[in-house]
Amino acid sequence: MNKYKIRIAVVVLFFISGSLSAQKQAERWTEEKINAWYAKLPWLVGANYTPAYAINQLEFWQNDTFDPAVIDKELGWAQGLGMNTLRVYLHDLAWKQDAKGFKKNINTFLSIAEKHKIKPLFVFFDDCWNAEGKIGVQPAPKPGVHNSGWLRSPLKSTHDDPAQWGYLKAYVQDILKTFGNDKRILLWDLYNEPGNSSYGNKSMPLLKSVFGWAREINPSQPVTAGIWHDNLKELDAFQLANSDVITYHHYDPAPSHQKRIDSLKAKGRPLICTEYMARRNNSTFQTILPILYKERIGAINWGLVDGKTNTKYAWDEPIKDGSEPPLWFHEIFRKDGTAYDPKETELIKSLTSQANK
Length: 357
Prior knowledge:
Elements: H1 3-24, H2 31-39, E1 45-48, H3 57-61, H4 68-80, E2 85-89, H5 92-97, H6 99-115, E3 121-126, H7 156-159, H8 165-179, E4 187-192, H9 204-217, E5 223-224, H10 233-242, E6 246-249, H11 254-265, E7 271-275, H12 285-295, E8 298-302, H13 342-355
Pfam families: Cellulase
Signal peptide: 1-22
InterPro entries: GH, Glyco_hydro_5
């Protein structure tokens, strides 16, 4: 074979190899597939969940503080409302510290959730709140400050440095390889509020990367990333074009929320609202949950139990002495399991009971 033919053969092999590699990355679920998946589910109702003992994702999952007994108790309160899902945040540093221990704790959490007939969705990345943090003992809450210890994932120093993303890929793909066929998991929320914390489109490369990493593993559960801000048009467009099931956040009153629903229904895919319910904003159980029930849209409010995250305080209205806010912003239960507002819990139980008939 002459040199010219050898070069041609090398080029052909290169393109064949590239084509085969591309085929390994799974495609977005078709409308038919995702709608068939959703049709088999009950009406999804749940909360964004962090145990009362944890100020952030690390205190939730690290071996020194992970507390199955507390989780079991609090998930029992969720089950008592008829909740059947919870949105739960992971963190790359928990995996970096002790991958084996982290996955063991995730498995324990899933066993507790299954006991309470709850199928959680897990969140990998998050652009919200503190830019930096560290493994180990976490800070005490700042009195009256909403999410004073919550951590971005990855931290800003890693988010801004693609040279460090090799370990992020290893983290995401290890979790997906371990749990990607686990029937106890509802779906994977790959990235919470990309572009928050003034990142804007700087988060697009990581957003694209995490979708690619997930598609390479091709879990049996759907993947998504929820839209949350109308001004982040490029990010929104990518999320809507690549999510299997459409998820979104909305903390405004009912008329605005209905407009968001109407616009997203045109996409032809199931909808899950993965964040709502801020009482001060008139996004409440009484105003929003009946709409989501009527439309059969998954309803996941922010917050279950008042705890170290301090999310009963509003985002932008700290109470420096840590006294009780006149109106709780988020959360359903006090630390002792009693309802903040019994009318709310009765409404939730009424709608979940109707949905299960």
